[in-house]
Structures are given as structure tokens and as C-alpha cells.
Amino acid sequence: MRCTPEEALWMYETMLVIRKYEETMVKVYMEGKLPPHIQKGLAFDIGSGPVPGEMHLAAGQEPVAVGVCVHLRDDDTVVGTHRPHHFAIAKKVPLQAMTAEIFGKATGLSRGKGGHMHLFDPAHKFSCSGIEGASMPPACGAALAGKKLGRDSVAVAVLGEGAANQGTFHESLNLAGVWQLPVVFVVEDNGWAISVKKETATAVTSNAARGAAYGIPGVDVAENDPLAVYEAAGEAIERARTGGGPTIIEVKTHRLLGHFQGDGEVYRPKEEVSGLRELDAIPAMAARLRGESIADDDLLSEIDERAERTVAAAYEFARTSPLPEPAEALEHVFV
Ligand SMILES: Cc1ncc(C[n+]2csc(CCOP(=O)(O)OP(=O)(O)O)c2C)c(N)n1
To answer: Where in the numbering of this chain does the Dehydrogenase E1 component domain appear (predicted)?
Structure first.
């Protein structure tokens, strides 16, 4: 399965939007969090600034999101993780409403109540959660619903390699296998679960191999390459759409930033990150587009400028949007 030039350009532009989005967030998130607001004993004041709360960025993991979502339609479901922005953007969640949500604004996807770990967009069938492994059961549910309704929609559950050691992983694989659900489990193996290295948490080298225990095909994608993900995901999604059942794919990907913003990363050697940056998939993809005459320098700078404008407009919208009225605090929530 080979991607078309249009798909390659979409994947490249979407990776650029994601990266620029995350790099902007690195700066915006720290606004107002450092002294003089600092509280004694804390590295910074997590509640201050335009983006309150924790922040988990996915810079470096763009190839996984674009290589999977390029195959998806609006009526396909994606359930993401606590590190959700790359998949949300690739699933075409509107960037302005998503950013406003992250800023806690009334114009956000959930009127500012969800924040960055709880993006919810029924129109594009995207949701996520701060609970590890929690993507899998709802994705199985969406897949079961599609199957029962006789539709050819599919569901994708995204999870980290750390989450793959939880009970819910095994229960979901088991049900997906026995019911032959149209679901694809995408494991993002960035090597770390906060400060815990993969090999210290599991004796299994590839979570894709765990599929065999449940009668599910497993595919290992060893490089953080959008085209390698494209191929593996394309086959899995086609299999799911045509009644062939579930697949588990594990992609070896790269977390370029800390687990959360403000993470001192004392557990990870600095050289690891500089090495990963040299393998960055975005400039590699630009070189490939140039090499295959899919894009010249003019087109690449046009794409770059458009991505820049898209991201800037999203942050501008979020900044200038109103906060919810205090009276709304108890609306749309269980009390
Ligand atoms: C059920 C549950 N247990 C623990 C946590 C705390 N926690 C948040 S992120 C994380 C590690 C996640 O690692 P991984 O699944 O590899 O994803 P990554 O952060 O590397 O993308 C943990 C343990 C949680 N959110 N949910």
C-alpha cells in the first residue's frame, strides 16, 4: 500500500501543524507560572497562566497520528490518551475550539470544562482521557456499535506502551478478538512511561506480539516514519472495515519533550533526546517530498506559512475568547 502525493502532502502539513502547535504550547503554558507567582516547595504554580493544569505534549510522535488518521473518515472513532493533541489535530478536531478548550474558555469543545486531557468532539468522533488504558474499552464499544448497526466504520484506540501493562489492555484485546470487532489498537512506544523504561516494566519486546495470545494480528512498526505507519495502519483499517476484525500495531516513536511540561527529566540521559532530534521525521519527510518531486521549495514554504497561520489563529481565538460565566460551573456536570 503506497500513499498518493495528496496523502503525503496532507501528512506532511498535518505533522507541521502539530509540531508548531506543540512548540507554541511549550511557551504559552509557562506564561504566568514562574516567579513571582511561585509557591514555596513547587517548581512552578500549575494553576496560573492562560493554560492551567498539567500539559503532556506529543512533539516527535506526529508520524503515528498522521499515518493512522489519513485513512480515517469523520464517522470513524478515535479515542486518544492523556497526550492527545497530535491525534486530535490529525482527526480534524477544529483547532480553534480545541485550543479554547485547553485555555478553559467558553468557546471550547466542552465550554472549557474538559481541558487538555479531556477533549471531546462528537462531530469528529474524537475523545480522550487522563486515565491510562482508558481508550481501549470505549473504542471497542464504538466498534461494536458500528458492527451492530451494519456500518463499515472503524474505531481506533491509542495507548502508550506503559498502558499496555494494565488489565484493561488484555480484556479489550480478548473481547475484540472474540467478537471480531472493527477496532485497531495503536500503541505508541516512546520507550518511557513517565520515568519508567519499557524494559523495566515488561519482558515483552513488542506489544504487537501480545495480539497472538488473543488471535489478533500484531504489527510492529520499528521506525517513527509516517509512511511505515501509513502502510501498517492502512492494512489494519481496511481489514477492520471489511469485516476482518481487529489488529494491534505498535509504533516505535519518539517523545522529544518531558512526560509533562515542567518535567526535569532527571531520569533520561540528555544525549537520548539530542539523538532523537536527529531522527526527526518532519525534515526527513520534507526531503522525501522534494526528492520525489512532490513538492519544491516554493510549495514547502507555502505549506509552512499556512501551518504557521493555522496555529497562530487557534491561539489568538483561544486568548480572545471569554471565560465561562461562574454560574455555568454546575451545568453539564454530574453533581
Ligand atoms: C490508570 C492510571 N494509572 C496511572 C496513571 C498516572 N500516569 C499518567 S501518565 C502515566 C504513564 C503513561 O505512560 P505511557 O502509557 O507509556 O504513555 P506516554 O506518557 O509515554 O505517552 C501514568 C502512569 C494514570 N493516569 N492512569
So the answer is: 53-326
Q: Is the pLDDT of residue 36 over 70?
A: no
User: What average pLDDT does the chain have?
Assistant: 96
pLDDT at 204: 95
What is the band of 37 on the pLDDT scale with cuts at 50, 70, 90? low
State which amino acid sits at residue 157.
A
Show Cβ contacts of residue 4 under 8 Å, excluding neighbours closer than 6 positions.
none
Mean pLDDT score, 277-298:
97
C-alpha cell at 329: 460551573
Q: In whole angstroms, what is the distance from residue 109 CA to residue 324 CA?
A: 12
The answer, yes or no, to whether any atom of ligand 1 lies below 6 A from the CB of 195, is no
**Atom 8 in ligand 1: residue holding the nearest Cα:** 132
Counting from 1 in the atom list of ligand 1, the atom nearest the Cα of 133 is: 1
Per-residue pLDDT band for 273 (boundaries 50, 70, 90) equals: very high
CA distances to 87, 142, 145 from 119, in Å: 11, 17, 21
Q: Please report, for residues 142, 169, 178, 211, the alpha-carbon distance to residue 245 in angstroms, rounded to integers and kept in the order given.
A: 14, 17, 9, 12
| Dihedral (CA of 304, 306, 308, 310) sign | negative
User: Residue 144 burial by CB count (10 A; 0-12/13-18/19+): exposed, middle or buried?
Assistant: middle
Mutate to test the pocket of ligand 1, among 86, 132, 192, 200 (most ligand atoms within 8 A of CB): 132
Tell me the sheet residues that pair with 93: none
